[in-house]
Amino acid sequence: ANLDDAETLDLAKAFGIPVLLNANLRDGSLRQCAADLGTKILLYEAGEALRFDELAIRAGVKGAIKVMRHLGMLNKSKARVKKEIEPYIARQSGWVRASESGLVMHHKQLGDLVNKGDVLATISDPYGQILDDILSHSDGIIIGKQNIPLVQEGEAMYHLAYFKEPDDVVENLEMMNEELLPEEYN
After folding, report:
1. Which residues pair with 147 in a beta bridge?
2. Residue 75's Cα: distance from chain center in Å?
3. Contact yes or no for 159/141 (Cβ under 8 A)
4. Strand partners, 130
5. Which of 18-22, 78-82, 94-98, 120-124 has the lowest mean pLDDT?
6. How far apart are CA 18 and CA 21, in angstroms?
7. pLDDT at residue 180 is higher than 60
8. Which of 63, 124, 152, 166 could disulfide-pair with 15, CB 3.0 to 4.6 Å?
9. Is there a single domain that holds both residue 85 and residue 58?
10. Burial 50-89, CB ≥16 within 10 A → b, else e
11. Which of 45, 42, 15, 19 is nearest to 166 (CA)?
12. How many of the other CB atoms lie within 10 Å of CB of 182?
């Protein structure tokens, strides 16, 4: 979202997720077209392609309802309001790309805090010979990850968001997980 716009930032905070990414508008994108028409837009990205992710779905539905309540489209909830998580805003993010083609063994997962130089994954050939370790090029939090066990050289593997206080962000992510997951998973 364009979090430099005060109204969009207000809606993003109302959505109620722990991490927000301030993203520039891309020419020709739906967000750019909406901005040109004066429409505020949030893009919720979560889960994984071709899969249902219960936590991501719960967070998305809950967030959409919170925004509709915030806008007055739905009545305020009568349930006791839990302490809202103050979101952390990433002003920058970047992708770590594959240096080789081969089989991937992931060492880090979504939401993990990583430091510059941490091994994120190992790429090997079909016989198990290690071709290269994929290293984090900066401190940050993993906000996106490809899960396909094969990778081509140059392919995006990990999306890192950069924060001033990444430890606090991880704590917020854990609080959201506890709130959204059913009891049997906690």
Report:
1. none
2. 29
3. no
4. 124
5. 78-82
6. 10
7. no
8. 63
9. yes
10. eeeeeebebbbebbeebbeebeeeeeeeeeeeeeebebbb
11. 19
12. 9
Instruction: Find where tokens 């993003």 sit.
Output: 12
Confidence band, pLDDT 50/70/90 cuts, at residue 110: confident
Q: State CA 72 to chain mean position distance.
A: 27
Is 124 in the same domain as 49? no
How many separate domains does the chain show?
2
Query: Rounded mean pLDDT of 77-99?
Result: 81
Helix (H) or strand (E) holding 95: strand 92-97
In a domain, 108, yes or no: yes
User: In a 10 Å sphere around its CB, with 0-12 CB exposed, 13-18 middle and 19+ buried, how is residue 32 labelled?
Assistant: middle
Rounded CA-CA distance 60/53 in Å is 11
Domain housing 78? 6-89+167-185
How far apart (Å, rounded) are the C-alpha atoms in residues 11 and 30? 18
Nearest to 156 by CA among 95, 92, 93, 94: 95
On average, the pLDDT of the chain sits at 86
SS3 62: helix
CA dihedral sign of residues 45, 50, 56, 61: positive
Angle at 182 between CA 180 and CA 186, to 5 degrees: 90
pLDDT at 134 over 50: yes
Q: How far apart are CA 148 and CA 141, in angstroms?
A: 20
Residues 144 and 177 in one domain: no
